[in-house]
Amino acid sequence: MVSTTQKDDATWYRCEECGLLFDSQTDAEMHEENCDSDDDTPSYLQ
């Protein structure tokens, strides 16, 4: 499930699996469907 947060006077959408922020709810939902967060670090940082 995607949650919303306010930052820099804007609404951001956060992946509840890994915590990554998106400026588009659609992008956040698409990411979350494919999110592979077996640990706390997103796979693109490994």
TrEMBL record:
<feature type="domain" description="DUF7128">
    <location>
        <begin position="1"/>
        <end position="46"/>
    </location>
</feature>
<dbReference type="InterPro" id="IPR055552">
    <property type="entry name" value="DUF7128"/>
</dbReference>
<protein>
    <recommendedName>
        <fullName>DUF7128 domain-containing protein</fullName>
    </recommendedName>
</protein>
<dbReference type="Pfam" id="PF23447">
    <property type="entry name" value="DUF7128"/>
</dbReference>
